[in-house]
Amino acid sequence: MNNQRSVRISKNLAKHLRHEPERIGLTLDAQGWVPVEELMAAAARHGFRFSRAELEAVVVGNDKQRYAIEDGRIRAQQGHSVRVDLDLPPAVPPAQLFHGTVVRSVSAIRDEGLRPMSRHAVHLSPDRETATRVGARRGKPVVLTVDAAAMHRAGHVFRVSGNGVWLTGHVPAQFLQFPG
């Protein structure tokens, strides 16, 4: 399968497993899972066919491990705008986490901290390199350092998704270190 096809399948999965399952007639369970066969049938009914082998190649080959397949079901690991409970237990974060953004967002972040926006949680990276890649998707990246240890001590709850992305409800500005 070529890279263009892989990207197209991955974007289709993101749209329907994270944001608009109803658009193709899917109903995610409370934890965001849907049977693989239901997903494939719904996508085919709406003009986008892919094989089980292609789906599995996208899931396994995704550099960010965005999706998980388990017991004949599939879900997005995080990033949902639809209501799901990923059933992730609270976790003690490392001392520092990182968030990749772009220059045009820094002023608002200084004022308001990091907010989940249309998602359920703020996404944080375990290392600076990953945060840089995340920020670079929308322009020149700016990497913010999060004092996760201090946040945790202050009572903020962290969870970690199956692909290593750290999730929390909000990062107040006082816990952020800005570059420069």
UniProtKB/TrEMBL annotation:
Role description: Removes the 2'-phosphate from RNA via an intermediate in which the phosphate is ADP-ribosylated by NAD followed by a presumed transesterification to release the RNA and generate ADP-ribose 1''-2''-cyclic phosphate (APPR>P). May function as an ADP-ribosylase.
UniProt keyword Transferase present: yes
PANTHER family: PUTATIVE PHOSPHOTRANSFERASE, TRNA 2'-PHOSPHOTRANSFERASE 1
Keyword Transferase assigned: yes
InterPro entries named in the record: Ptrans_KptA/Tpt1, RNA_2'-PTrans_C, RNA_2'-PTrans_KptA, RNA_2'-PTrans_N
Enzyme's top EC category: transferase
Family designation: Belongs to the KptA/TPT1 family.
MF annotations from Gene Ontology: transferase activity
Signal peptide: none
Pfam families: PTS_2-RNA
Assigned keywords, A-Z: NAD, Transferase
Protein name: Probable RNA 2'-phosphotransferase
Listed EC numbers: 2.7.1.-
